[in-house]
Amino acid sequence: MEHLIHKYLDKLEKQGLARRGKTIFLALDAERVSSRPEDDEVRTLSRVFDLMSINSLLFAEPDEPYRSIIAELVRGFEPSLSAQGKIVPMDCETRTFFHDIPVVNDFSPEEIARALSHRKSVLVKDRGIVTYGVVAPEQAFVSFSSACFSTFVKYFYDSLLYLRECAGAGKKPDGAFLITFKRMLGHIEGASAPPAGLSLTDAPPEDGDGVIRMLAEAGRAVVECRLVDSFFGNISYVHENTIYISQTGSSLDELECCIDAVPLDGSSSVGITASSELSAHKNIHRETGHTAILHGHPKFPVIMSMYCLKEGCDRSLCHKTCREKRYLAEVPVVSGEIGTGPTGLMHTVPEAMREERGAIVYGHGVFTSAVGSFREPFTQLLEIDTACRKEYLALVGTLLGNGGRH
Ligand SMILES: [Zn+2]
Ligand SMILES: [Zn+2]
Questions:
Q1: pLDDT at position 250 over 90
Q2: Is the pLDDT of residue 46 over 80?
Q3: Could you check whether 2-189 and 208-397 share the same CATH topology?
Q4: Cα of 335 to ligand 2 centre, how many Å?
Q5: Distance between CA 57 and CA 54 in Å, rounded?
Q6: In sequence order, what DSSP letters do the residues of 162-186 get, joined into one string?
Q7: Residue ranges per domain, the chain?
Q8: How many angstroms separate the alpha carbon of residue 335 from the centre of ligand 1?
Q9: Rounded to whole angstroms, how far apart are CA atoms 212 and 215?
Q10: What residues does the ion ligand 2 have nearby, CB within 5 Å?
Q11: C-alpha 207 – ligand 1 centre gap (Å)
């Protein structure tokens, strides 16, 4: 168990989510183990552990920019946007995953346990995020990482709407909001470039083992470049009439044992554990003839995709029904829900990708594809992310009235 705790402490740090020194991980082995020697915080968390039927508990003060973002969301930079006991994620996938994220004022075991009894994570005002796992510490890690993702997306999206509203009404944005917002922009402008020398295999694989190696390599690269949380997103490759696809809920940076091989002719019922987006991948392959398909949730494409300005559109429904023809980073934005329903992305995305190098799903993420290897889809995903981040910065620059500078 201790090696698992250290594995997730490492992942939290590597993905820029929380530093070791600011994190406490408790997990149940033969007995309860803690990543930190007993102190007041550990005692409080142990009490939460006693109040719940869980196997692991994670508490950390997130690293910047998440710490300030969460503080801002909780404070509410506009009275109408204050958290009021909970934060409601705006993007589709974490909204499905979380519903909402409760906020409690005190680091009190009873309050924390009460909030966690019906939700996967809780924000403790001015302290941090608490999450848990019922069967494995991985669940605590996934919920933590998702809480960071969804608060990030919500903050930058809400800020965009707020600035637009201010610009429209000719009023000056709140001073305290602006100070923090500009500081947060500093974080995203300086977002690190992908690690140098990252080059993916370019040769098509020879056999099933080769496909799995290729998928694992591409999955790791996508996580390393922070184009997806390690959990959400999926990836597939078609080889000899079989689609090899990541299993649902698998960590993209550890795919070696989490790939399903599903025959394209439907001759097998395997695929129950395959990604929930299997049908979308199959349809993309059918429409485009592409064999390497990548799906991630880079933050700025998600944020920018939700910025629909079409008259008459109810933005809370755009992910299902928006018919506004829009392009971001030179790829189309389409509506599309998770799953196989009539407004599902398995219908909208493949059609949109017939002539394009990728597609952005409203409030959800990006699909890219190519023939032969993941090098091109990976580069495209990276480029779409960078272009959307630049578009966001340009847009807020305009809204702040200084033509691109802020
Ligand atoms: Zn997705
Ligand atoms: Zn719309």
A1: no
A2: yes
A3: yes
A4: 8
A5: 8
A6: HHHHHHHHT-PPPHHHHHHHHHHHH
A7: 2-189, 208-397
A8: 13
A9: 5
A10: 308, 310, 313, 318, 322, 324
A11: 27
Inter-axis angle of helices 208-224 and 375-399, nearest 10: 20
The alpha carbon of 365 and the centre of ligand 1 are apart by a number of angstroms equal to 6
Which ligand neighbours the alpha carbon of 97 most closely?
Answer: 1
Mean per-residue pLDDT over the chain, rounded: 89
Give the distance, in angstroms, between the CA of residue 330 and the centroid of all CA atoms in the same chain. Answer: 22
Between CA 75 and CA 123 the distance in angstroms is 12
Quote the ligand 1 centre to 2 CA distance (angstroms).
31
pLDDT tens sequence across 322-378 = 888 899 999 999 998 887 778 889 999 999 999 898 999 999 999 999 999 999 999
CATH architecture of 208-397: 3-Layer(aba) Sandwich (3.40)
* Neighbour-count burial for 362-390, b at 16+ CB within 10 Å, e otherwise: bbbbbbbbbeebbbbbbebbbbbbbbbbe
Burial tier of 78 (Cβ tally within 10 Å: 0-12, 13-18, 19+): middle
Mention every residue, 6+ apart, whose C-beta is less than 8 A from residue 362: 92, 305, 306, 308, 318, 319, 322, 333, 334, 335, 336
To the question of pTM greater than 0.85 for the whole model, the response is yes
Distance of alpha carbon 216 from alpha carbon 122, whole angstroms: 32
**Lowest mean pLDDT across 72-86, 120-134, 165-179, 383-397:** 72-86
User: What are the C-alpha distances in Å from 156 to residues 90, 199, 302, 307, 346?
Assistant: 11, 31, 10, 11, 28
Sequence letter at residue 2: E
As given in the structure block, the two tokens for residue 212 are 């799995």
CA 137–ligand 1 middle distance (angstroms)? 22
Class of domain 2-189: alpha beta
User: How many other CB atoms are there within 10 angstroms of residue 241's CB atom?
Assistant: 9
Ligand closest to 297 (CA) is 1
Ligand number nearest CA of 318 is 2
Q: Which residues pair with 28 in a beta bridge?
A: 32
Q: How confident is the model at residue 405 (pLDDT cuts 50, 70, 90)?
A: very low
Which protein residues have a CB closer than 5 Å to ligand 1 (ion)?
365
Place of tokens 């809400």: 158
Q: Which ligand is nearest to the CA of 366?
A: 1
Q: Which ligand gives the minimal distance to the CA of 294?
A: 1
